[in-house]
Design brief:
Blueprint: H1 4-22, H2 25-45, H3 52-70, H4 77-98, H5 105-126, H6 132-159, H7 163-184, H8 188-207
Helix pairs in contact: 1-2, 1-8, 2-3, 2-8, 3-4, 4-6, 5-6, 6-7, 7-8
Length: 211
Amino acid sequence: MITLPIAVCLVALLGLLIAEWQQSRAGIWMTKPVAAAAYVWAALDKGALETSYGRWLVLGLILCWWGDVLLIPTHRRSWFRAGILAFLAGHLAYIAAFFQLPAGWVGWLVGILLAAALAWFVLSWLGPKLPQEFRRLVVIYVVVICSMLVAAFGAADGSDIWTMALGATLFALSDVSVARDRFVTKGFVNRAWGLPLYFAAQLILATSVAG
């Protein structure tokens, strides 16, 4: 069911993609914070503050909102670093959220295999392309997001809420587009597939609070 916050997020996402395509900085500033605020709203609309899982998830979503905003100025390295740190903290909040739920060993195993494959691919692909100043931060980020994947799959198996595993997976995949745009090849194509994956991931996680 498409609720009002989900609809707002989708409309703002469409506007964001148009702004990115037209390279309109004003358009990006007008649409990206709105789209990000809408996924926080979606969680609150589902009663997220009523459970410990939901409260930790909302914290993660708010931190990701800050990450989204801080990544808008693409040519400022200090802002990019701050954005990555905000997302890093957001992933840690997601991990804490997933640990509020029962875990299943099959989910843990699947998550470990998936996370190991993702970490190997990203680090072997990005390694030679990373500036020295970002190498440690990127490695830490990969470790944390892979830990988030494992925790999400374990919690999904234990609680039988597999949407959280889907959301975590889409989130991790969307980060590949950010890395490619920043460290490999810049271009709208990265955002054309990365942004829809990212906002879909956040909406899926936000609505997982309803079970």
